[in-house]
Amino acid sequence: MLEDLMQYEQGERNLVMLQHKFIVEWADGKEDTLTFTLESYGIPDGFSAMATLVGVPCGIAVQFVLDGVIKTPGVLAPYTKEICEPLRIALESEGIGMIEKVL
């Protein structure tokens, strides 16, 4: 019964928003506040934003392993430029990207 109440109505879509905020002190002593915001809407009667934001990065990472773009074995976090940069570019080509601002 609860499952029925939690379903989307016909034509309804969801929204996922994520924001990271950093206060950065540069080498010259200047301080900036940087924000990185992700906003994604689901497709009415299609994939939810959450499904897209989980599935697309996973699919891209698998394709990178199969194509030899990622050669390191094991479980990897995208913290190095060698992994992060190609993933970011591929995600942006799929319409998934962050809006960066300096406040």
TrEMBL record:
The Saccharopine dehydrogenase-like C-terminal domain, residue ranges: 2-96
Taxonomic superkingdom: Eukaryota
GO BP of this protein: lysine biosynthetic process via aminoadipic acid
InterPro entries xrefs: AASS, Sacchrp_dh-like_C
Stretches of the chain forming a coiled coil according to its record: none
GO MF term (any one): saccharopine dehydrogenase activity
Pfam families named among the record's database cross-references: Sacchrp_dh_C
Gene Ontology CC annotation, any one: cytoplasm
Keyword Amino-acid biosynthesis (UniProt): yes
Record flagged with keyword Lyase: no
Protein keywords: Amino-acid biosynthesis, Lysine biosynthesis, Oxidoreductase
Full protein name: Saccharopine dehydrogenase-like C-terminal domain-containing protein
Species for this entry: Cerrena zonata
Lineage summary: Eukaryota, Fungi, Dikarya, Basidiomycota, Agaricomycotina
